[in-house]
Amino acid sequence: MSDGDREDPRAPTRPGSPEKSGVHSVGHTGHADHGRRELPGTAASPGVGIGRAYVIDPRHFHVPRREIHTDEVGGEIDRFRAGVQATTKQLEAIKNRLPHGEHRQILAAQQLMLRDPDLASRVESLIGTEGISAEWAVDRVAEEIRETLMRADDVYFRERGSDITFLAERVMVHMSGQDDGEFQPPPGAVVVAHDLSPADTAELARAGVVAIVTGVGGQTSHSAIMARSLEIPAVVGVDGILDTVQSDDVVVVDAIRGLVIVRPHTDELDRWQTERDRYEVFEDRVQREHGLPAIARDGTHIVLRANVALDAEISSALFHGAEGIGLYRTEYVFMERETPPSEDEHYRHAKAVLRRVAPYPVIFRTFDLGSDKPTRLFTFDEREHNPAMGLRSLRLALRERAVFLCQLRGLLRAAVHGPLRIMLPLVSGVSELKLAMEAVAEAKQQLEDAGLAHAQDVPVGIMVEMPSAAIVADNLAKRVDFMSIGTNDLIQYTLAIDRTNDEVSYLYRPLHPAIVRLIHRVSLAGKNAGISVSLCGEMAADPRYTWVLVGLGVRELSMHPSAIPVIKNIIRGSSLTEMEALARDVLDADDVDEAESMVLEVMQARFPEHLLHGGGQRLAHEQSGAVAQGRSREGDG
Ligand code: PEP
Ligand code: MG
Questions:
Q1: Residue 264: partners with Cβ closer than 8 Å, 6 or more residues away
Q2: Ligand 1 neighbourhood includes 465 CB (under 6 angstroms)
Q3: What is the pLDDT of residues 71-125, one digit of tens each?
Q4: Number of the ligand closest to the Cα of 220
Q5: Which of 95, 175, 342, 610 could form a disulfide with 107 if both were Cys (CB 3.0 to 4.6 A apart)?
Q6: Adjacency order of strands within the sheet including 250-254
Q7: Which parts of 248-381 fold into alpha helices (H)?
């Protein structure tokens, strides 16, 4: 960083920001030309929104960078502490204004980040040792943390980088002694910003905006999660949006395909309005059935559950008609903290989740950390060149046995309060399963010894997400209570495609005969052993694959909440006979191209609207019928 003030392209300027007051830059002129422009992005929350742009321009934000004398150090530290305190209070106020308790968790997590003693001591020591202003120190520390997070493979962790930027910005605004005013877009506006913090997104929902567009971010950024659960159409990661749009421009946000049209021609507006209305009618139609079970025409019940990583998603799961949580990714309970959660924290968290989801079951997956879900809690060998095949998931849990036992004890105790199931990730085969089962038995024994109430009969199941596990699924099935196929990893390992590498994502094709046969094999193994087989990879959420999966024998599907109504509607409109016929044909396919065209032909003919509306941004890539599912791997899995 060079000396002197600089422009920071990341942080939005707010009214009363240190460098420029009264700024939303609503109406800034930027570099926009005046013609129609169409920009692609990631559809993060489905729907279509049409309105006038309300631009929150980040480009005039300056971080004051001042060197200080030693006698100013104490004063700067006080200013920093006051800034943190004011920000915490402000987040608390926004949190309390939120209509649903569940959204508050994201803001609570931000407050937690803010209270991190490591963060405070790094800022304070920079002020003292380098003799720099509090703002400068905050900016430097935030940037360091951001850079560390940006190096993570998992997009979820990378997106926490923007959380830290927002927090730093809020603290800096407060340090300037001015109130951090909130945005006030008029109802019906389309908010356009470089990025939005979860707190801003929550406030925007209250203001009645019709859509959100951001220049950065992905499916799992907190603002995307917020937008989804508040049901505001959002397209994120739109490169160049702030160079293109001016406030008051008419903007169409197509958050089904992931497109933003700035200054559309007047003659196309009618078409977009029709498109918006059609989407809303379709959504109403499928959502109307949310309380009904997914029963096929011949009476076969397919259980549809939700994948959840944050409690903020639970109400969305219930709203969309999930019959429970099929995959609770507990690794996020471990996030943004310096020490692993205690047994009591696991217990209280799981109990609270069970209460909200009751009477339906919740399947808690024990922590799947490492590799694409990095953590600062454990030490890894820096020479790990191949982390996806390294110390991750169950292997890590078996090495970090005390942490694993602590989680197991918390879950076993919570199971007294509702139908809780425990799921072990990344099991390779029977020997490893036995080790994990020994840990479960040990956790129970520890609870017995301590005289703590816990459930005796908690079902324990496994994720089948390694080819080895799928191949020996018959042996595994005899020893577990249920199995759930994790296609995100199963495809990665079977086809040797790094799920986080865009360069090879065109090869990520779920209908590859090897994958189809493995799914079939696991479903047969479950059937023979009399246990349930579910599928909780991203494939479950894709309307193109519903018939194949059910036809292959899978009777439970778990997916991100908003996909449930569409998949349910397909199942309710289909018979098992036709689904099995398609699955048989696909099993006979010679190669993936043949399998894909068979499936697309049938599904396109029967469910054109579902394929259009139901697959979010993933369907945008297959206009010509070339199925290249998995190009956007940021979603629920
Ligand atoms: C999977 O691998 O399919 C899965 C559901 O787990 P995750 O995406 O969390 O690895
Ligand atoms: Mg997995």
A1: 36, 250, 252, 272
A2: yes
A3: 899 999 999 998 888 888 888 877 776 655 445 667 777 777 788 888 888 999 9
A4: 1
A5: 95
A6: 37-40, 259-262, 250-254, 48-56, 190-193, 211-214, 234-236, 42-45
A7: 266-288, 314-319, 343-357
Q: Ligand 1: which residue has its CA nearest to atom 8?
A: 637
Rounded Cα distance, 163 and 157, in Å: 10
Please report how many Cα atoms fall inside a 13 Å half-sphere around the Cα of residue 516, on the Cβ side.
26
Strand partners, 370: 373
Greater pLDDT, 608 or 503: 608
**Which residue has a Cα nearest atom 1 of ligand 1?**
486
Alpha carbon distances (Å) from 50 to 86, 252, 275, 295, 345: 36, 5, 11, 36, 44
Flag whether pLDDT at 355 surpasses 90. Answer: yes
Alpha-carbon Rg for the chain, nearest whole angstrom, is: 25
CA–CA distance, 360 with 363 (Å, rounded to integer): 10
Q: Is the CB of 537 under 6 A from ligand 1?
A: yes
List the beta strands (DSSP E) in 373-523: 420-424, 460-464, 482-485
How many helices and strands (H and E) does the chain possess?
23, 16
Secondary structure class of 350 (helix, strand, coil)? helix
What's the CA dihedral at 493, 496, 499, 503 to 10 degrees?
A: 180
The per-residue b/e assignment along 361-379, b for 16 or more CB within 10 angstroms, e otherwise, is bbbbbbbbbbbbbbbebee
The amino acid that residue 395 corresponds to is R
Q: What is the pTM of this model?
A: 0.72
Which position has the token pair 């697309």? 600
3-class secondary structure, 432: helix
Residue 448, phi then psi, degrees to nearest 5 = -55, -50
Phi, psi (rounded to 5 degrees) for 308: -135, 135
Q: pLDDT per residue over 179-227, tens digit each?
A: 555 678 899 999 999 888 777 777 777 788 999 999 988 776 767 777 8
Q: Is 24 a catalytic residue?
A: no
Please state, in angstroms and rounded to a whole number, the distance separating the CA atoms of residues 495 and 518.
12
Predicted pLDDT at 220: 64
**Residue partners of 152: CB distance under 8 A and separation at least 6:** 158, 374
Tokens at 284, concatenated:
């109403």
Q: Is 69 a catalytic residue?
A: no
Per-residue model confidence as pLDDT tens digits over 463-490 = 999 999 999 999 999 999 999 999 999 9
pLDDT in tens, 385-440: 788 888 899 999 999 999 999 999 999 999 999 999 999 999 999 999 999 999 99
Q: Residue 41: which of 212, 198, 202 has the closest Cα?
A: 212
Q: Please classify residue 61 by burial: count the beta carbons closer than 10 Å to its beta carbon, then call 0-12 exposed, 13-18 middle and 19+ buried.
A: buried
